[in-house]
Every structure is written in structure tokens, then in C-alpha cells.
Amino acid sequence: MSADSRIASITARIVERSKPHREPYLDRVRRAASSGPHRSVLGCGNLAHGFAVCSPAEKVALAGDRVANLGIITSYNDMLSAHQPFETYPALIRQAASEAGGVAQVAGGVPAMCDGVTQGQPGMELSLFSRDLIAMAAGVGLSHNMFDSTVYLGVCDKIVPGLVIAALTFGHLPAIFVPAGPMTSGLPNDEKARVRQLFAEGKVGRDELLEAESKSYHGPGTCTFYGTANSNQMLMEIMGFHLPGASFINPGTPLRDALTKEAAKRALAITAMGNEFTPAGEMIDERSIVNGVVGLHATGGSTNHTMHLVAMARAAGIVLTWQDISELSDIVPLLARVYPNGLADVNHFHAAGGMGFLISQLLRAGLLHDDVRTVVGQGLDAYKIDVRLGADGNVERVPTPKESADPKVLATIDQPFQHSGGLKMLTGNLGKAVIKISAVKPDRHIIEAPAKIFHDQAELNAAFKAGKLEGDFVAVVRFQGPKANGMPELHKLTTVLGILQDRGQRVAILTDGRMSGASGKVPAAIHVTPEAKDGGPIARIQEGDIVRIDAVAGTIEVLVEDIALKTRVPAHADLSDNDFGMGRELFAPFRAIAGAADQGASVLFH
């Protein structure tokens, strides 16, 4: 089925807007690919260094340019649950490559930090910029020019977007993304949230809180709520970077290992040495990016991707805007209820039919471009499957069922949970912002209340503990943008404001910071651009000003006369405490040149 005319129209607009960037990009990719296996340009000394530790047979193979060499970029570390499973992947990939007549080498490692560990800590101020650093680190590994294809081992929040930027920068090489999968289900997410709220109210102690958190995050794999990490996996599959069905298989299982080996063999099959050459830069086009945005809306995915998708697209010369994302949200229905947009976790989502069912439903309605290229060939029909382990130990795929196994978790296109994706752009005299309302009750979609001003989340939490947050209000938390302090996530606001909302107060958040995929039930106008550090209008809001956040009309406004607002002197914040400690001094150059949130908050693309 061809794409819905509205989807096609937005895509055509992106194509036209992108031409000045996309056409030179494709020219660079094609020129790089046309020179054939790049080891041929290496001198003997270069090549000897590149395969010094290989076996004699591998050295002969790599010296002759007749055997493909697969580069592995890994985000392995053994502290973080999502990345610990990658410890064994290089050995599996080398074995699979050998079976396929190729060679595989770890080209390089990239840092992987966990927002769960750094939440509310100084290290969180490095988090967003780690995306671009990861792209650079992957680029260093691939710059050795030894490889014919690549596999990327990454899962979490900034790691996958950073790796995608690298894959598209080295767009002449094929690229397959290999996930580790989610941890098995632990303490239900709603119970975890309940204990967090009790702790914030002082009704349980740290021991009880730690016990609940440990039961939630209890083993190898991705956290099971639907935040940025699992939104990443959805994106990689719906954009064609994953093998069909690869996203949500638990770590440490025979099927997970079989999928990893299959990915390695497929990566070798799509090099320029064969008949199915699939360079990443040509595979991913404007249609692929639109498919990713559609998947984000259909699943109620992370608000972080309003920045990551913009930056990822730009790496391929594609200019995606918040307006595009917002208009697609109006078209795409919500088909998944996964925490914080429901009680289920991603394991329940997968069991209900997962990505195969989701893609089949969206294709049936013409909401995806089905004629895209993917790592398995042409079209998304190959992704309308359930994946299982065959009797021979290899991956087996069967057509996805026509009905959801759990309609409370995964809906059909005919009976969606809501008729829009719930991720919208807001505009007004405060600039631009993003709001996610898929978990916000309809009677909270419009909040008009006096402003309470804070310059960090600790200040707001202190006011809560002191009993100063009374009545209806909009919490204006500013100087949290990329240039101010690296744009940390402000998760500690969620619990406090959730308590106040449950008490009957009408509250909302307005911030130039981030809230991620866990912004939850409190209305949150986030990523406000221009940020306060840049003198944006958010810096001119004064205590008690009436602020209106209207997710229905798509507006953010402070109800002050324009002339009066413009003549106010912007507020100033002492940010010196954000300049040092936990590596923040190393990232000063990033803060100085960071782009705006609506441009991807990138140091690479403005």
C-alpha cells in the first residue's frame, strides 16, 4: 500500500527542504563507495598494523581485498545493565563472520553512560553531549579505513543516536545495529512509581526505596519502561537498521545469540563485494526518517527523540523540523500503552505482538512508507513477523498474528488508544517547546496559572519540602538548556509535581531542560527554545506572571503585553557551579557551541 497522502506530503516537503544538504551528502557517499574495499589504499606498513593480531589465514584474506572485513563498534561496559551483555558479542560475531567466509574486528569502543545512574547528579550534565562524543569516538575507530561493513552494539539513550550519526557519517559502509534486549520483568512500574512517591512524601525510608528500585532494575538488559532506550530499539527496527524482530528479545537467551550471529552474516552479505550492496547513507532516506517519527508517535515514545531524530537526520543531509514531527503526530494514532503511558512494560509489549504487529497495523493504514530500503532488502513487509528459535538453532520468522495478544497493551489501527500520537510542538511568545500528552489526562491539556520561578530542580524540591508549593502554578525551571549546563533531564520534578497534582492542584512544568520518555502524567512544556542562557523569553518571565500551556491549540504564552515582555531585562543565573566537577570542565567547549534544541542540540550540526 502506498503511503497516506498526508504522510507523502510531509515527506515531499522534507525532501525539497533537504536538497541543498542531501544531494552533496549522497555525492560524498557514492564517491567514497566507488573506490571499492578501502584497504587497497593502505600502505604495507598501514595494513600490517591493522591486522597484526589476526591469524595467518585472516592476514592472507585481508591482504588480498577479496574477503570482507566487518568492523565492530561496541558500547560495552560491565557496570551498566543494558550494555553488559555486549561482553560476549565480539566472539559471537567473529565466529559468525568466519562461518560466512569473512573476518571481524572490534574497530573501537564508545562511552556509554546511564541516565538512571546520573539522574539528579552532576554527571547528568554530560549526558546529552555524550551523544556527539560517541559519534566522534566511533569515527575514530572507523577512520582506520580497514572495513567493508559495520555492526554497532548499542542500546541506551544517547548511545544509539550517537552511533547512528557515526553510521551515516560513514554512510558508504553498510551498517547493522545489534541490540542486547530488555531485562526480564521485575517489580511492576506502577508499584515502583508508588514507592517513589511515598518516599518523596516522607512516608517510607531510603531502605524501602532502594529495595523497590533494585527489584525494578535487577539484571542484564535495558530498563523495561518505555523511555529513550527502548524508543531507540523501536526506531532502529522501523527504520530498517535492525534485523526483523531483533529489538525486544531478552539477553542471555539462545534466540538473542542467534540474532546476533545472523546480523554479523547479513552485514557481510551487503558489502560492496557482493550483489546486495547497501550503504547506510543511501539506505536511510527521508522516508526512513518519517517512518521513525511515525513509530515514535504510534508507541508514545521519548521526547528526547525530538532532538535526536533531528540530529540523526542531519547526519544524512536530511532537514527534519519540530513542525514536521508535530504534524505527523496529528495523523498517527497511539497504538501502544507501555509505562509511563500505561502499566505494561516492553516485555508485555513484545508478548502482545511487538514490533511486527505494530508495523503491520501502520502499513495497513498507509502510515508508513513500505518502499524503503532496509538491511534485509526492499520494503518493510519483511518486518511484519514474529521471531523465534528454529529447531536447527537458527532464527525462524513467521507472519505476525492479525490480532493483538493483549489489546490493553497493543491496539489495532481500527481501535487505537487515541487518534493522535500525543507529541506536539508548542509555539508562542515564549518561543518553541515540545509536550508529550499521551499519559496526561485530557482535563490537564490546558493549564493557565501563575509562574513559580526556579533555576534548578533542587530548588523546586526544597520548596516542596518546605511546604511552599501551594495552589495552582506553572513551575518555570530555566537555565537548564544545552548552553547553560548541558541540558540535563529533570526527572526529580516528576514525582514532586505528580504528588501536587494528585492533591488536586493544577500544575505544569515549563523548562528549557529535558524530561525524557518519563515525563509522565504532569503537563510538561520542555526543550523551550531559545533557552534562558541565550536570552530567550523564558528568562523574562517573572514570579506570578500568568503562563498558559495549551496542548490543544499548541501554544505556550506568558500573558504579558509583548512590548512589556521585550523591554524586561532577562534574568541572570550564576552557573559557575556547573563548570567543574565530574568531568564538566572537559565539556566547556561543547556548552559554548551547542546548537538549539529544535536544531538537535548538537555540537556537530547547527
Automatic annotation (TrEMBL):
Q: Which GO terms describe its molecular function?
A: 4 iron, 4 sulfur cluster binding; metal ion binding; phosphogluconate dehydratase activity
What this protein catalyses is: 6-phospho-D-gluconate = 2-dehydro-3-deoxy-6-phospho-D-gluconate + H2O
EC number in record: 4.2.1.12
Single GO cellular component term: cytosol
**TM region(s), chain numbering:** none
Instruction: Tell me the protein family, please.
Output: Belongs to the IlvD/Edd family.
> What note does UniProt attach to the cofactor annotation?
Binds 1 [4Fe-4S] cluster.
Residue ranges occupied by any Dihydroxy-acid/6-phosphogluconate dehydratase N-terminal domain in the UniProt entry: 69-381
Biological processes, Gene Ontology terms: D-gluconate metabolic process; Entner-Doudoroff pathway through 6-phosphogluconate
What task does this protein carry out? Catalyzes the dehydration of 6-phospho-D-gluconate to 2-dehydro-3-deoxy-6-phospho-D-gluconate.
Task: Quote the pathway field.
Answer: Carbohydrate metabolism; Entner-Doudoroff pathway
Q: For the Dihydroxy-acid/6-phosphogluconate dehydratase C-terminal domain, which residue ranges apply?
A: 408-601
- Give the protein name, as stated in the record: Phosphogluconate dehydratase
Q: Which UniProt keywords apply?
A: 4Fe-4S, Carbohydrate metabolism, Gluconate utilization, Iron, Iron-sulfur, Lyase, Metal-binding
SUPFAM superfamilies to which the protein is assigned, alphabetical? IlvD/EDD N-terminal domain-like (SSF143975), LeuD/IlvD-like (SSF52016)
User: Which residues does [4Fe-4S] cluster bind?
Assistant: 156, 223
Name what cofactor the protein needs: [4Fe-4S] cluster
